[in-house]
Amino acid sequence: MIPNILTTVRLVIIPFFAYFMLNSENFLVPLLLFVLSGVTDIVDGWIARQFNMITDVGSVYDPLVDKLMQITAVVCLSLNGTIPGWVICVVAVKELSMIAVGVVLYIKKIVVHSNWYGKAATVFFYAVMFVFIIFPAIDEAIKTVLLAALVVVMFAAAIGYLVKISGAEGKSLYNKKA
Questions:
Q1: What is the pLDDT of residue 163?
Q2: Which of 22, 67, 119, 165 is 20 to 30 A away from residue 16, measured at CA?
Q3: What is the mean pLDDT of the chain?
Q4: Are 76 and 17 in contact (CB under 8 A)?
């Protein structure tokens, strides 16, 4: 399936992004790899929905690769001194928790497809990281505001996801596999 191939391309991009992020004086190559990762994420999702290529494997694989890219981005930006180390902890705890929930749902044969909370949070994450890649020496006040907003958006998305899977929105949102 084309969407899963694009997700694999994103997975392959991650180590190259990390290498250039940590070993390049120029932000252009890691920025292009980061943007390519974001674009392929959008395109694979669009293709999957548009051409009815959504699969259970893709529903797990795609968000897993997204989370790996997000964790890699914050680790690299922290290691190069652009963002503080606590951001790694916050992002890792949130993303690893989401992976754990996803694994439990998968084992229980429950598929919960993505929602706008997660999509909005991912777009915001990419936008904030884009700014930090281009402007590693950004003003501390701006950095603090962006990071605080990122944490709020990420956890709002996680809460939205948990509400969705709990069925608290008043309707069944589960799509059980046969």
A1: 84
A2: 119
A3: 88
A4: yes
Q: Under a CB-based contact definition with an 8 Å cutoff, are residues 59 and 117 in contact?
A: no
Q: HSE (CB half, 13 Å, CA atoms) of 139?
A: 3
**Torsion (CA) 69, 74, 80, 86 in degrees, nearest 10:** -160
Q: Which of 106, 107, 109 is nearest to 176 (CA)?
A: 109
- Amino acid symbol at 82: T
The dihedrals phi and psi of 110, each to the nearest 5 degrees, come to -110, 125
Residue 178 is which amino acid?
Answer: A
Distances (CA, A) of 97 to 18, 118, 150: 23, 14, 17
Question: How many domains, in total, are found in the chain?
Answer: 1
The residue to which tokens 């990281």 are assigned: 129
CATH number at residue 12: 1.20.120
126-174 residue pLDDT tens: 999 999 999 999 999 999 999 999 999 999 998 888 888 876 444 444 4
pTM above 0.70, yes or no: yes
Rg (CA), the chain: 17
CA distance 164 to 162: 5
